[in-house]
Amino acid sequence: MLAIKVLPIKGYKKVIEATDPEVGLHCFIAIHSSSLGPALGGTRIFPYATTNDALIDVLRLSKGMTYKSAIAETGTGGGKSVIIANPKVDKTDRLLQSFGQVVDSLQGEYIAAEDIGSTVDDMLIINQKTPYVSALPIATSSGDPSRFTAWGVFRGLQAVSKHIWKTASLRGKTIFIQGLGSVGDKVANILFWEGAHLILNDIDNKKAHQAALLYDAQVVEGSDIFGVKCDIFCPCAMGGILNSTTIPQLKCQAIAGAANNQLLDESNGIDLMKRNILYAPDFIINAGGLMSATAEYNPEGYHPLVVRDKVNHIYDTLLKLFMKAEKEEKPTNVVANEIAEHNLQHEVGKRMAKINFEKNRS
Ligand code: NAI
User: Taking 90 as the threshold, does the pLDDT of residue 362 lie above it?
Assistant: First the structure.
């Protein structure tokens, strides 16, 4: 039987924990803020070692979504969900349908989408139980967001290059991509055509070697990867990878990638600045997917060209941010947080029109 309980957590609008032992569901949904609109964020399906690890992750990720939405001005708030399960073995239609009921219980306060471990097809199954799902592969929705995320990351890499080397071209630059999933592989593909030299790493070595054949890239196996010499390190896997152990090892001039919550702690931004490594704040560079998913709620409907324009602006947003951080002698993550907090305080980009969720009712 499905059981849902509310967890009182300071600083969060609503956090719920749900279990349905019959189908193996144990999940959390965290709504950090709805002050600019309904909370939208992906559903991560991951075999967390402990329940507390899952809770910490959903809290960090949902807060990140608040900041991401505030800077991208998508008229949405910050939310996220995590399901404690191994997506390769435990993911069943019944589990996803039960999760759909949990999402539905929030009546649109939280809108689900893809994330690590979940796919557009999974969203269709969740959609059988709730219309509060975005990025569905159907005409009324916006489809797989990862191509927009990947293009936004590429635009971010160009901004980094412009700031450091005074040219947006990445031709001949060595870029090290960690994680060759939905986003990382697409970034690699774009960079191949751009003429960059690629170094690749994935926990799944086979994936890395397959991609290396396509992109004439070099593979670095294993997890001891932070000392790899490159121009830009592009994390496209898990968060928390920039910390007091890894930062001293880095041999790159910049970090710019899709992974959420790359800094283990906000103070790690200072460590990067001290090492003169330019950091493109994750919640700005990876906002392309969010821009696509939220565009399906535009009153005029979803138009990929509108999203393309918005995603292209990630270049300008980052360039301005890099210059501001340099001028004020502050870490880039601090400046990014300040802009997001300003937008939240002054309700910049707040959604005024009501969303028509009926369009996605299956
Ligand atoms: P994905 O699940 O499709 O791909 C992740 C890849 O990373 C997989 O190939 C996996 O084998 C690899 N991986 C996992 N742990 C690893 C490790 N410790 N070392 C090396 N490789 C590892 O996920 P997706 O969608 O590509 O997302 C990647 C990152 O970007 C995540 O942090 C996600 O939250 C973030 N992101 C994704 C968006 C999207 O549109 N898909 C939007 C914004 C952020």
Answer: no
Which residue among 190, 238, 255 has the greatest number of ligand 1 atoms within 8 angstroms of its CB, and so is best to mutate?
238
* pTM of model > 0.90: yes
Give 147 Cα–ligand 1 centroid separation in angstroms: 13
Q: Where are the domains of the chain?
A: 3-62+76-127, 146-345
Write the CATH number of the domain with boundaries 3-62+76-127. Answer: 3.40.50.10860
Instruction: For residue range 110-161, list pLDDT tens digits in order.
Output: 999 999 999 999 999 999 999 999 999 999 999 999 999 999 999 999 999 9
Catalytic positions:
80
pLDDT bucket at 14, cuts 50 / 70 / 90: very high
Distance of CA 96 to the CA centre of its chain: 21
Q: Are domains 3-62+76-127 and 146-345 of this chain identical in fold?
A: yes
- Of 63, 31, 57, 60, give the one whose Cα is nearest residue 45: 57
Q: How far apart are CA 202 and CA 206, in angstroms?
A: 8
Q: Which CATH superfamily does the domain covering 146-345 fall into?
A: NAD(P)-binding Rossmann-like Domain (3.40.50.720)
Residue 122 corresponds to which amino acid? Answer: D
